[in-house]
Amino acid sequence: MPDLTLADLVANRTMSPEIAATLAVAAEERRSLLFVAIPRMAGKSTTMRAVLHYAPAGTPMHQLLRSAGPTLGIPSQPDGGYLLMSEVAGVGFDDYLWGDEVRTVFAALGRGFSLATALHAATLDEAFSVITRENRVPDDQAARIDLMVYIRSIGHWSRPTRRAVAEVHEIQSVSAGRPQARLLHRWDEAADRFEAVEQPARIGSLVGTYENHLRTFAS
Questions:
Q1: CATH assignment at residue 34
Q2: CB proximity list for 39: less than 8 A, separation 6 or greater
């Protein structure tokens, strides 16, 4: 089965056209992205792949693996590409990284790479606690994450009846392990309605791109 696109995720009401436009712009600008949910099969990887489709043509995508050795597959020279860390988790899979490995990845972001990764958490603070406290990533490096996307999965984890992007946060800073962020989008679960809350402060420097994407996803 081919990967779902952002347009598919709008059509099945996983997200709104406004959320899709924000995520497309973030990938175009090579922003660092964190996808978060609690259960397995909530759609973190599916959403990540759909978003990364909007990275500029030719953007290198480096899948990081423990089996690649101490470098994890991070190139020695920055190339403006994405470092793909499938998940921040200490469960032993080759593409799931933890501890020193996670710190190696975040340290590389200062050399011109972007990050796309995922982890299990229920809130913004809990997600950053995994990064800054459990994995001891310094505040200034954790703050290189630009967007956190939280996905709600309804029903049994293996057969969810609904998935929805419940929150999109733009990270402004991290202090003492806690993020300061702007809530850009949220899902009102009771009303089953997506709401645009605030305009981004960091994302959207390419004039007109958000509006162009919004017209496409809303059509």
A1: 3.40.50.300
A2: 120, 153, 157, 160
